[in-house]
């Protein structure tokens, strides 16, 4: 079950290090003389990670009604770049999305730009990233409507990072291998596994390059080309490389698909479970080297060690842009389309298991609030919030905290 797979994943590598500790140790030193420009969103993300689940964000006090033993429960930052908060948010999102997916096989698809376009993407940030997300979805949607007369459902997730946290923009898609027939409105699966990769790669390339040229002509593109001919020559050069497009075999609904959704969704680029060492000014983390394969044709896992002056800019280049949606929905999964209920997944057993895992943090909180001496459940007393300007502590009741977000909390 999905729940068991998550437990195996988290117990395979026990989390020994917190990213917040490394930031706490070296960020202030780095920020005085940064290697690269630090944007407001990057500052905000770092500050959130450093104070997440600490007294700085507030703490709820619970006490045993008999002996008075207290337990502190700290508030979370809820920043989408925080490795802890983003993982919890991803699980809840995956559960919600699964119940809105059609009850047909789905395929995982990856679409990647040539690395020569990386600097152009960075210079135009959200404008070209928006184009990338839209073009990749339109490529698949138009192809399936033309070839199979079907309206597919597509969930697209933008990743800007590779295994070593280098800049590597690409799109992960969950594509319904079938959809709703345009003429009859019936739900239909695709029987064949055949994909004309050359056709789709060419379509993807042409649509993206047309957008680039159009942006250039409309003077909306930030670039270093001397003229239009220089741009076209550059595009001709990068066309010698493949525009990567790869389909995984179809997956059944919902268990297999939800694993991919959980793995390739809104989580931050570096899991704390992959950190192997934090020693002095250096941090090390595990990554998969896809250029080195073992005898089973699987990538070999290696360890990368970086000085904090190299690690911070490499990591923070992937902080999501303000207001940018990393996950988007196309085709019949967009808000414009209402899928008939009888076409949706109905696997309630897996849903229950997922809900149990998603609510696991609440269950852990419940257990930690049981007094070890008396066996009774501790009751909420008050909340302590530190005024960041005066550093004075203030006591609140929950009803007075209307301006604060709901807690995603962890016991001390």
Shape descriptor reads globular
Described by strand count, sense and barrel closure, the largest sheet is: 5 strands, antiparallel
Helix content: 25-40%
**Count, helices:** 11
CATH architecture of the largest domain: 3-Layer(aba) Sandwich
Name the average pLDDT: 84
Q: Give the tally of β-strands.
A: 16
What is the CA-based Rg, rounded?
24 Å
Structural class: alpha+beta
| CATH domain class of the largest domain | Alpha Beta
Q: Per DSSP, what share of the residues sits in E-state strands of 2 or more residues?
A: 15-25%
Question: What series of H and E elements makes up the topology?
Answer: HHHEEHEHEEEEEHHEHEEEHEHHEEE
CATH topology of the largest domain: Replication Protein E1, Chain: A
Query: What is the domain total for the residues?
Result: 3
Distance between the terminal alpha carbons, to the nearest Å? 30 Å
Unreliable spans = 1-13, 348-358, 402-412
The neighbouring-strand order within the major sheet is: 15-14-1-2-16
Give a written overview of the molecule.
The chain has 412 residues and is an alpha+beta fold. It has three domains: 77 residues, no CATH class; 94 residues, no CATH class; 211 residues, Replication Protein E1, Chain: A. It contains eleven helices and 16 strands. The strands form four sheets. It has a five-stranded antiparallel beta sheet with strand order 15-14-1-2-16, covered by helices on one side. A five-stranded antiparallel beta sheet has the order 9-3-6-5-13, with helices on both faces. Strands 4-7-8 form a three-stranded antiparallel beta sheet. Helix 2 crosses helix 3 and helix 4 packs antiparallel against helix 10.
């Amino acid at each position: 079950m999905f729940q068991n797979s998550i437990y195996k994943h988290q117990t395979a590598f026990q989390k020994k290090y917190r990213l917040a500790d490394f930031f706490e140790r070296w960020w202030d030193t780095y920020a005085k003389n940064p290697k690269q420009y630090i944007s407001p969103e990057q500052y905000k993300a770092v500050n959130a990670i450093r104070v997440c689940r600490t007294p700085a964000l507030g703490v709820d006090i619970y006490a045993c009604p008999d002996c008075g033993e207290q337990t502190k429960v700290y508030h979370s930052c809820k920043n989408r770049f925080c490795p802890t908060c983003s993982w919890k948010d991803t699980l809840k999102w995956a559960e919600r999305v699964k119940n809105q997916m059609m009850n047909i096989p789905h395929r995982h698809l990856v679409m990647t730009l040539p690395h020569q376009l990386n600097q152009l993407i960075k210079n135009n940030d959200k404008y070209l990233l928006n184009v990338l997300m839209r073009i990749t979805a339109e490529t698949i949607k138009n192809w399936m409507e033309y070839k199979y007369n079907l309206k597919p459902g597509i969930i697209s997730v933008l990743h800007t990072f590779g295994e070593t946290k280098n800049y590597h923009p690409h799109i992960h898609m969950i594509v319904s291998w079938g959809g709703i027939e345009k003429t009859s409105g019936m739900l239909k699966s695709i029987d064949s596994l055949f994909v004309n990769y050359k056709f789709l790669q060419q379509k993807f390339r042409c649509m993206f390059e047309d957008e680039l040229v159009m942006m250039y002509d409309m003077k909306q593109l930030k670039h270093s080309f001397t003229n239009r001919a220089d741009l076209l020559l550059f595009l001709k050069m990068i066309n010698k490389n493949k525009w990567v497009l790869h389909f995984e075999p179809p997956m059944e609904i919902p268990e297999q698909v939800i694993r991919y959704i959980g793995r390739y969704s809104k989580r931050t680029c570096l899991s704390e479970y992959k950190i192997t060492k934090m020693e002095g000014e250096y941090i090390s983390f595990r990554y998969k080297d896809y250029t080195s394969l073992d005898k089973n044709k699987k990538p070999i896992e290696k360890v990368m060690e970086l000085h904090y002056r190299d690690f911070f800019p490499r990591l923070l280049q992937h902080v999501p842009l303000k207001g940018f949606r990393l996950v988007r929905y196309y085709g019949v999964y967009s808000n414009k389309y209402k899928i008939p209920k009888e076409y949706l997944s109905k696997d309630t057993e897996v849903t229950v298991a997922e809900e149990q895992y998603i609510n696991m943090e609440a269950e852990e909180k419940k257990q930690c609030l049981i007094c070890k001496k008396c066996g009774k459940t501790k009751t909420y007393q008050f909340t302590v919030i530190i005024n960041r300007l005066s550093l004075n502590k203030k006591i609140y009741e929950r009803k007075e905290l209307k301006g604060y977000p709901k807690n995603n909390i962890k016991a001390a």
